[in-house]
Amino acid sequence: MSATRSVEFDVKDIGLAPQGKQRIEWAEREMPVLRLIRERFAEEKPLDGVKLVACAHITTETANLARALQAGGAEAVLIASNPLSTQDDVAAALVSDWGIPVYAIKGESTDTYNRHVRTALDSHPDIIIDDGSDVVATLLKERGDQIKEIVGSTEETTTGIQRLEAMQKAGVLPFPSIAVNNAQTKHFFDNRYGTGQSTLDGIIRATNILLAGRNLVVVGYGWCGKGVALRARGMGSNVIVTEIDPIKAVEAVMDGFRVMPIAQAASIGDIFVTVTGNRHVIDGEHFSRMKDGAIVCNSGHFDLELNLVALRELAGSDPVTMRPFVQEYKLQSNGNRVIVLGEGRLINLAAAEGHPASVMDMSFANQALSVEYLVKKKGELPPGVHLLPVEVDTEIASLKLRALGISIDTLTAEQLEYITSWETGT
Ligand code: ADE
């Protein structure tokens, strides 16, 4: 750990800051909504004196969120939300150019990752921005004495919200938590178009394979799965979807995809992408059935969707690294090679740069406004999972449209009256 501009930090190489700064400013050009929020925050200082921990993928887009929070008066400590997603130049620039304490190194071990979570909690935050709920879970498990200090938290992901809901059900969630992922201006765009594009970007950057004509299996047809399937079809893949939810399965069928169980898809797929938020959705029995050279990756939050322990057992030896983020396991039973990308961690952030700034603009507008909302409503919101008010969602979409130079219609007085009355029928 080192200190510069009198902040503590743990980053790979502070000398990478100039490149990081330039890339952060490049991303900012695609984040007009967050920029407007930052400008307002700079004038109004709604977060004056607020101590924040932000656990996020340390990317150029997150850096722009951190700038907005800092402009609002918050003192933020940033930590990685995944050991493989940090952009080291961005981490360096945040420390060196913005004086923000960052604890994040691409490729950090799980121990280092957990140590960073604890270091962040040592700063005694009022508000936690979480991505996967690891910080909130650590706080509950290990820092009971700090719970009373927390005004609230925000959560970026579907996975994290599932964990928060489990905490709420178990009666252990002691403060309000804003489910940022559930805002329409978050999951409609970030999960669908963001994951759709960045997942294919990660697969292509890692392997340089042609997607056209390949059987690409999407495991899970939530918003992320929909995005991956849509974009893979656009690249010419024959997309197969696997699901456990009958409604989502029907949706996939009517969207024009083949739907079948993973046990059947296992022997047909050339490329597999998991986006379920659940564990071992591709397990040993599925790896055993795969074609020689099948490529497998994950774009869900945690690295447990692929059972890599079972795969390692089937191989009987460690994988061979063929290229960065590409590891090949040779199965003992039939000699087939199964290729795993990004060690089963989010491929879009491990091998590429995550979602493009234009969608993160709306996600992080939601984060910034959620923090402001928690501060404004301090002491008023009951413990539990909350949504941001729908007007905030609509306002973010309106600002995005304005930034894109697109105008839309408004209801006439006659139309407004019609849709709000029950008397007029046919
Ligand atoms: N999650 C997915 N893409 C991201 C990005 N570019 N920055 C931060 N979090 C992300």
Biggest pleated-sheet summary: 8 strands, mixed
What shape does the CA trace take?
A: globular
Count of structural domains: 2
Report the CATH topology name of the largest domain.
Rossmann fold
Q: Uncertain runs with pLDDT below 50, 5 residues or more?
A: none
Residues in helices, as a percent range: 40-55%
Please give the CATH class of the largest domain: Alpha Beta
Write up what this structure looks like:
There is one protein chain. Helices cover 45% and strands 16% of the residues. With 426 residues, it is an alpha/beta fold. It folds into two domains: 2-182 and 355-404, Adenosylhomocysteinase-like (Rossmann fold, 3-Layer(aba) Sandwich), CATH 3.40.50.1480; 194-345, Rossmann fold, CATH 3.40.50. Adenine (ADE) binds next to helix 3.
